Amino acid sequence: MLNTVYRLTEPRKIEIEFNNIKMNDDKVIVRPTHLSICNADQRYYQGTRDPEVLAKKLPMALIHEGIGVVVYDGRGKFKPGDSVVMIPNTPVETDPFIAENYLRSSRFRASGFDGFMQDNVAMDRDRIVLLPADMDREVAAFTEIISVSNHAVGRFERFSHGRKEHIAIWGDGNLAFITTLLLRYRYPEARLYVMGLSHDKMIDFTFADETYDVRHIPENIVIDHAFECVGGTGSQRAIDQIIDFIRPEGTIAILGVSENPVPINTRMVLEKGLRIFGSSRSGRKDFEDTVKILSEHPEMVKHLKNLVGDVIDVRSVQDMHTAFEKDMAKAGGKTVMLWNV
Questions:
Q1: What's the number of domains the chain is made of?
Q2: How many CB atoms lie within 10 A of CB 216?
Q3: pLDDT (mean) for 267-292
């Protein structure tokens, strides 16, 4: 089966290439319908990754957040037209103690091999999850980032102590919004505090109990545990503030991605007996759990709909550039491409 792939060959340059998809029973052929742009995609598109990284990974089709419809399944488990979410993490082995998204041997789409900017994608059959017929497709397009937060909240449940009366989230972007929403449904009795910089963004965190400007956090605030969802150059200050404000023996979840090493005040980590853990990406179970949660709580989907920003009808390479340019200019939220090439 001849397939068209839209690969980034250098920053801001997308070229059409072709490959051949073998039709066999081990693969399910999926036609993408809705693709969501992630900050990681933008770092490749804009060329802000290290030149050595770009030279190693390009050319490569971008996008690791997306859904599609089944075109072909030789085993007949999935029917043509079934809507599915595509899982970008692609493990090649299993380990009894290490999750698939942490195995160093695992491959990840749009970070080492082609992502979902293709006419059709040959997916391992355990890399797709069936979507309910009534789920909002624009929200479903970014199921991946929701599953990342859900994965982190699940790990937090395992690693943290039983007092979860006061939980703080540092950040006011998409990841912080999603993580706070999931925490609200996991711990309905907890008081959730959001620490950010943008009042315009934090006003949408209607499910949080309080929002605070990080420059004016009350000194007497009580925080049992905290999530860092800032990343980038703001990570250091966020982690410093968390360590200062969190109560002894609290748990700190680090979710924000930073390109450079971030110093941590280890003296206070030791004095307070803090537990710090990192979370990255997600696996099949996280996707299954996420789809189940959203199916059971349609009100969550309504909240997540607020994250949908520009929805771009993509029918050409120029439309792809338009989508990435609009995403760069956005104040927040997710840019979704209606994949109609």
A1: 2
A2: 7
A3: 98
**82 located within any domain:** yes
Do both 87 and 199 map to the same domain?
no
Q: What is the CATH number of the domain that holds 202?
A: 3.40.50.720
CATH number for the domain that contains residue 85 = 3.90.180.10
Instruction: Determine the distance from the C-alpha atom of residue 137 to the mean position of all C-alpha atoms in its chain, rounded to a whole number.
Output: 16
Q: State whether 154 and 266 are in the same domain.
A: yes
Give this prediction's pTM: 0.96
Range of the domain at 55: 2-142+307-339
> How many Cα atoms sit within 13 Å of 283 on the Cβ side?
15
Report d(CA 191, CA 165) in Å as an integer. 6
Q: Specify whether 152 is located in the same domain as 137.
A: no
Binning pLDDT at 50, 70 and 90, where does residue 112 land? confident
